[in-house]
Design brief:
This protein has 6 helices and 2 strands. It is mainly alpha-helical.
Amino acid sequence: MTPQPHADPKILSRIAELERELSELRRSAGTTDSNGGGSAEWRLRLMESLVNNTQNVIYVKDLAGRFILVNDKFCQIFGLPRESIIGKLPHEVYSPNISANHHRGRPCLLRSTSTWQTAGTNTFP
């Protein structure tokens, strides 16, 4: 904001102070960087927030089939803490029937460079 030349010096001083505080808040929140996209930490927090606040189950498994990421909805549905899921294979987390669904299509996915989405219905305990 560009103040008017005839404005009260106290007002001008307060405007400058507020602008400095706003700039510092933006810096400390990590919402600015050289390319305007936010700091890496801020982007990570944003991604975690998006993944954990959806009503969809989201998970990521490594090439061996072990869970490396599960969202809050996944933990809620299975009634398990995240720490008891990460690093485990599907059959170590839930029933064989549900586990079989997670392996369906996996070989073709591993040979492709695209993402894989599934939709279906499972009966959970």
